[in-house]
Model the fold of this input.
Amino acid sequence: MTKKTRDATRDATRGDWKKPALDSSEDEDLSALLDGELSPERAEQLRRRLAEEPELAARCAELGEVSGHLRNLAHPADRSESETQRQGARVEGMHAALRQRIAAEQAATGIEPPAGTSSRASAPVIPLRAPWRGLAPAVAALAAGLALYLSLGDFRSDDSAPTGNLAESDFSEGVTPDPENPLELPRWTAETEAGDGARSENGLVETSGPESAPQLIAEAFPTGPSEMARENQDRLAADLDVDLKVDLSVIGDEELAIAFEFDVLADFDVIENLELLELLDELDTLERI
Amino acid sequence: MVVERKDPDLDIALMLAFRDGDEAAFDRLFLRWAGPLLRYLERMLGDEAVAEELVQETFFRVHRAREGYESRARFSTWLYRIATNLAINELKRPRRRHVHQEEEKADLRAVGLGVEEVVDSRRLGVEVGQELERLPERQRMALWLSAAEGHSYAEVALILETTEKSVKALVHRGRAALVSRMGNCTDSMASVSRRGTA
Done:
C-alpha cells in the first residue's frame, strides 16, 4: 500500500482508513470490477463514480494493490535465475516421481501402457551422445569383435573378397576353420570399393546365405546413418589401429548405445533386443574361439 | 502486470489426446500446469513439500481418470478442483511443517525495518503472502484463484463447488481483509521506524 493511497484513504474517511465510508455491496462491486466480473452497465456506472469520487477511487486503489501483490506472488516478474532453475528442478523432480508412480501402478495392476505409446515414453532418459567417449573400452571391445568377425567372414568367403587387418595367417595356428562349414556363420562382409554386391540400407554387402548377417543387422539396426558414429569412425579406427570394415555410421546411436551398454537393453523393444543379443552372442562366440 | 493465461483449447486438445492414449500429451500438460499448481498449493498449505506431494497426487488422479474426461469444462478447472479437494483434506489434518512461512519470515527479517521510505514492494509482497495464509481457507482459495491466477468467478465456483455469488463475496472479503491487515502492518512498521529514527 503506497503512502499516497493511504493518505488519500485517510483523508476520505477522516482518519479511520480501515473503515471506508462505503456500503458493503459497493465495496464488493469494486472488487468484482477489478476482477472483470461486473456487467458492462454496472462497470460503466462504477467507472463514472470513480472519476468523480476520490474516496471510492482510493478504496479501489487499495483493493487493486493487493491484487497486484497476489499476481506478483503467482507470477513473479523479478524472479532470479537461481530461483527459476530451482523451480524448474522441482517440476522435473515431481515429474520423474510421478512417472515412477504411474509405472509402478501399471506394473502392479498389469495394465499395459495405452495404445500409441511405447516403453520408451516411460523409460528413464538415456543420454546417448554425451557418454560416447566414456564408452571407449566397450567400443574397442565391440570393434575388435567386429574386426575379428569380419576377418573370419572374409576367410571363408571368396578369395576376391577383401580381408581385414587380421589376416588368415593370424588364425592358422591352433584353429583351422573348415572352409566348407567353418563356424556356421552367415556369409557376409562389409562393403568396400572392391565389393560387387548391392549396398543395403545399412551399408553392408550380402554375399550369400538365407539368414545373412546384413539381414540380421538391417533388422537390428533399423535407424538411419548416425552423424555421431560417422564422426567417430576414423578416431575409433585409429585408437584400435585396425582398418574397420564396418561403417559404424550405418548404426543408429540408440543401437550403438544398446550394443555398448547392456544395462539399457531392457528399455528398448524386445524384438530388437533379441536380434541384437543373437548378433552379440555370435560375436562373443567368435571372440572366444 | 498481465496474468498469464494458458490456451484452454490447447489444454483440452492435449487432454483428449492423452485420453486416447498419448502419454506425451500428459507430460506436456504436467509441464504446463505443475508450476502454477505448485504455487497455488504452497499458498494454500504453507508447506513446500506437502504442496509438491499434492501436485503429484493431483496429476496421478488425472492420469487415472483420463477415460472419464469430458471437454465440457476447462482442463484447468478440473485440475484445480482435484487439487483443491486434496488441499482441503490436507488442511483438516494436523499441519506438518511450515517451511514456506519460515522462509518468508526470514526474507522479511532480511529486508529489515527502519527504512525511511514507506514500504517497498518486495516486503509488502512477502507480507501479503503471509497474511493470505491467515485468511479462512475458502477466502484464501477464492482470492488466489481469482486475483492471482486469473480464474473467472464461474470457474472458481466450479473449483470450490459453490455459487458465483458466494465466490464474489469470498473474494471480496479476502481482499478487504488483506487491505485492512496490510494497513495495520504498514502503520505499525511506520511507527517503529519513526521511533527508531527519533
About this structure: The radius of gyration of chain B is 19 Å.
